[in-house]
């Protein structure tokens, strides 16, 4: 059997739920004998943007948070959903669904009135169908009982009236939820009066009906069940008698019909009253539950506010206590500041006295310094040599040299870090600065192409280990795995840097007296090398870049080779050129005349003793003579001796060598020296033993597994290192003053 398609009936319902039930009831009666499905159209409303209604009364929307407004909207939506569910339940077995209409630019009544031609529109007012009737150019709107609902003005249509009615309903329905509650309350008062009046009518109607039933019962008892007609009537009388009986019967039937119709109306009204009462009961129950929930929420919020208030009180008390403590501390600090100010004033007085005393002492010290400088360098040189010898012996260097492993070399240079690379001597040779057993060293690497065979590298190491002279760079050890040799580290770089550097401080660090001394030291070293038996050692590449200076500007010849194709004369000529550079600070390819030499003297070295300068110039010129066969060591030493006498006697002054003063550890405060490196600290850090160390030194000490103090040999409490900013600032100030 084929399914018969059901007809859809669209019912537009507003927020007046009483009128909605009446409209649905009319719809169900209208199509009670047809298979239909009902689609309920509901236009959703929004909360009023100006005011909101709360248990405390009407409040401006601005005084309510967005969260509360959202709660009110959800509450209104829940109420609407509840009423719509009641509408669906009211439809009973008839299939029903709800469509919520969103806001549209076109009003709802225009969307409904401007319907397609194949749709029929029914307007229900108060549960009754209304019609438009025209009479004498006037319009009347009547219900299905003929009662006039509204009167239309001339030229007005049903669309105009329907639009006005919808606008009024929309205006009423656009009010906030509390307004609808007030309208419902007024409507309920109206309905309650109607229901009470209806109940009174029922009581009176019931009494009348009981009387009528008794009367009718009596009448019916008196009347025979069969029609009685006298026998003495003729035919005309009988016809009249029957007509009267028929009229009476018709009247009775009409009366019964009216009673049945009235009973039907009463039943419908009773159903309406029951529905209204049930809805009101559910609404009251929901309102009670909502009020109960609101009361619970308000109690919770009240308790929460009380808790917050208590917390605020506690916080205020705590801050008040802290404020009192701060005020007391401020008072105490103020007192200490006064004491400190008075102590500072007293210290300033003492400082002024000390400054005056120091000025007197400085004058005496300067006199002693002139006589001390020459001896100081010799003493420091001997100390340094002895210290290196002791350290070498204690760490296994032996009396000659030590062979290092590749791991030791890589650890000393941080795996040949570019940060530690000093210079590139050639394509096959590099020099790195490193530390071995807390001693700063220079590590010179040779590629396999330079050291062509193991025997050649061994010969070079053996040669360097046998050369022992104060002015020849000493070899500490070597590493055959990496083809590198470990030398003493020269802190002040090369003579080339000191003579030809663009920095004024580097050039001025070598005064005329130091330059004469360096010439004597180089001459002594070359004379020693040339007298080695059985074969003299020829340097073959003597130049300022191969003359290194230690922290006291003592010269050391470097870059010796195992074999040289040059002869002694080439070394003597190179020495002559080097002396000219010491005198003038410039590089000369050949000898110059005396007048040029006088004009070209390097005045950054101070005021030269002209006699000694010219004598030294003469020695340099003789070195270019190919007939000379030995180094002029004695002549140069004689010039040096006379220069020392001039300085000692005060006949000539030599500017202070800044690099000597900076790196002269004998004048450095002991607190500025690292206990491990025995050098001036650059980044001092405080350990748990109370001593300050250079960060790199103490870090290496801890990383090698030590957990004891390098100074006390006691176990460290912890390995945390703290930067000593105060000590670092003092060291920096001291260095700045020494270099000024």
TrEMBL record:
CDD domains: RING-Ubox_WDSUB1-like (cd16655). It comes from the Eukaryota. Residues 417-740 form the Protein kinase domain. The keyword RNA-binding does not apply. GO terms for molecular function: ATP binding; protein kinase activity; ubiquitin protein ligase activity. Residues 232-259, 295-385 form a coiled coil. It catalyses: S-ubiquitinyl-[E2 ubiquitin-conjugating enzyme]-L-cysteine + [acceptor protein]-L-lysine = [E2 ubiquitin-conjugating enzyme]-L-cysteine + N(6)-ubiquitinyl-[acceptor protein]-L-lysine. The keyword Transcription does not apply. Its EC number is 2.3.2.27. GO terms for biological process: protein ubiquitination. Residues 667-740 form the U-box domain. Pfam families: PK_Tyr_Ser-Thr, U-box. Keywords: Coiled coil, Transferase, Ubl conjugation pathway. Pathway: Protein modification; protein ubiquitination. It is an enzyme of class 2 (transferase). InterPro entries: Kinase-like_dom_sf (IPR011009), Prot_kinase_dom (IPR000719), Ser-Thr/Tyr_kinase_cat_dom (IPR001245), U-box_ubiquitin_ligases (IPR051348), Ubox_domain (IPR003613), Znf_RING/FYVE/PHD (IPR013083). Functions as an E3 ubiquitin ligase. PANTHER family: OS02G0152300 PROTEIN (PTHR45647), U-BOX DOMAIN-CONTAINING PROTEIN 50-RELATED (PTHR45647:SF56). This is RING-type E3 ubiquitin transferase.
């Amino acid at each position: 059997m084929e399914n018969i398609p059901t007809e859809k009936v669209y019912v537009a319902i507003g927020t007046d739920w009483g009128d909605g039930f009446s409209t649905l009831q009319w719809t169900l009666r209208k199509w009670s004998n047809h298979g239909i499905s009902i689609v309920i159209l509901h236009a959703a409303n929004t909360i009023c943007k100006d005011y909101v209604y709360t248990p405390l009364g009407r409040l401006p929307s601005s005084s309510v948070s967005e969260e509360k407004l959202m709660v009110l909207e959800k509450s209104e939506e829940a109420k609407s959903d509840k009423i719509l569910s009641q509408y669906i339940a009211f439809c009973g077995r008839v299939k029903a669904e709800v469509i919520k209409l969103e806001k549209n630019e076109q009003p709802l009544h225009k969307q409904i009135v401007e319907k397609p031609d194949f749709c029929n529109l029914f307007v229900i007012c108060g549960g009754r169908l209304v019609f438009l009737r025209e009479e004498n150019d006037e319009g009347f709107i009547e219900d299905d009982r003929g009662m006039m609902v509204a009167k239309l003005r001339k030229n007005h249509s049903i669309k105009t009236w329907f639009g006005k009615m919808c606008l009024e309903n929309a205006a009423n329905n656009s009010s906030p939820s509390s307004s609808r509650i007030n309208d419902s309350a007024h409507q309920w008062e109206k309905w309650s009066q109607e229901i009470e009046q209806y109940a009174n009518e029922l009581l009176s109607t019931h009494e009348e009906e009981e009387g009528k039933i008794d009367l009718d019962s009596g009448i019916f008892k008196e009347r025979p069940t069969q029609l009685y007609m006298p026998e003495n009537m003729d035919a005309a009388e009988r016809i009249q008698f029957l007509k009267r009986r028929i009229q009476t019967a018709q009247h009775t039937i009409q009366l019964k019909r009216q009673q049945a119709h009235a009973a039907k109306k009463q039943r419908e009204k009773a159903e309406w009253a029951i529905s209204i009462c049930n809805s009101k009961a559910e609404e009251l129950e929901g309102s009670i539950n909502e009020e109960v929930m609101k009361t619970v929420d308000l109690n919770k919020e009240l308790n929460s506010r009380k808790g917050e208030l208590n917390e605020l009180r506690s916080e205020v008390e705590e801050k008040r206590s802290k404020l009192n403590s701060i005020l007391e501390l401020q008072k105490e600090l103020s007192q200490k500041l006064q004491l400190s100010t008075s102590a500072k004033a007293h210290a300033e007085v003492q400082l002024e006295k000390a400054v005056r005393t120091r000025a007197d002492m400085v004058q005496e010290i300067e006199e002693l310094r002139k006589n001390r400088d020459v001896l100081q360098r010799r003493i420091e040189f001997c100390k340094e040599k002895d210290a290196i010898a002791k350290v070498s012996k204690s760490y296994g260097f032996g009396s000659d040299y030590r062979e290092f492993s590749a791991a030791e070399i890589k650890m000393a240079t941080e795996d040949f870090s570019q940060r530690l690379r000093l210079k590139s001597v050639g394509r096959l040779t590099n020099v790195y600065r490193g530390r071995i057993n807390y001693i700063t060293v220079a590590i010179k690497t040779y590629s396999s192409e330079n050291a062509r065979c193991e025997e050649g590298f061994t010969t070079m190491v053996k040669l360097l280990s046998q050369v022992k002279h104060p002015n020849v760079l000493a070899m500490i050890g070597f590493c055959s795995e990496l083809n590198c040799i470990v030398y003493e580290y020269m802190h002040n770089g090369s003579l080339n840097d000191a003579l030809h550097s663009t920095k004024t401080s580097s050039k001025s660090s070598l005064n005329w007296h130091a330059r004469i001394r360096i010439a004597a030291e180089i001459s002594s070293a070359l004379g020693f090398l040339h007298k080695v038996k059985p074969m003299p050692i020829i340097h073959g590449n003597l130049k300022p870049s191969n003359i290194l200076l230690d922290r006291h500007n003592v010269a050391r010849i470097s870059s010796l080779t195992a074999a040289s194709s040059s002869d002694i004369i080439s070394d003597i000529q190179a020495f002559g050129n080097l002396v000219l550079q010491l005198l003038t600070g410039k590089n000369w390819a050949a000898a110059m005349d005396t007048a040029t030499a006088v004009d070209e003297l390097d005045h950054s070295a101070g005021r030269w003793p002209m006699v000694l300068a010219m004598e030294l110039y003469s020695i340099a010129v003789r070195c270019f003579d190919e007939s000379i066969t030995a180094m002029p060591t004695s002549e140069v030493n004689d010039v040096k001796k006379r220069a020392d006498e001039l300085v000692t006697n005060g006949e000539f002054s030599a500017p202070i060598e800044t690099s000597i003063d900076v790196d002269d550890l004998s004048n450095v405060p002991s607190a500025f020296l690292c206990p491990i490196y025995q050098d001036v600290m650059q980044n001092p850090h405080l350990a748990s033993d109370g001593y300050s160390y250079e960060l790199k030194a103490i870090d290496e000490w801890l990383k090698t597994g030590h957990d004891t103090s390098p100074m006390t040999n006691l176990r460290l409490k912890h390995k945390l290192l703290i930067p000593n900013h105060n000590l670092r600032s003092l060291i920096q100030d001291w260095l700045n003053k020494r270099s000024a």
